[in-house]
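User: Run a structure prediction on this.
Assistant: Running it now.
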Amino acid sequence: MQKFNPPKITHACIDLGLLHYALTSDGEFIEVPKFFRKSEHRLSKLQVRLARKQKHSKSWKILKRKIAKLYQIIIARQHLDWQFKLAYYFFSDVSVIFVEDLQIANLVRRCKAKLANNGQFLPKNCGYAPPLLRG
């Protein structure tokens, strides 16, 4: 009779952030490639040429299609391809992944302004009032 060897369970934690795309439990920072920045020069050249054309002419429509194609195919699909490759990188050698579930909108929301007793607004650091203004 053969012994059953359970597979080794490996795990990874992924923390999504505002400054970096993700941080893994191994301490690896993952940055977002700047696909738009790389194609921005080419896109701006086409848009300048488009601005010089007469609106709704045949050459204007052709150039408009070129701009849409550049954005859709080159920029958007590169970003989608990068996301699939990143997902494959995470899931290829790991059996369990822990992902933090945060409401990003709550992290970047600003504090509501608060009034002191004398009618002045308190400083921006959310609820801290200097001892003179506390009432």
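The mean pLDDT is 78.
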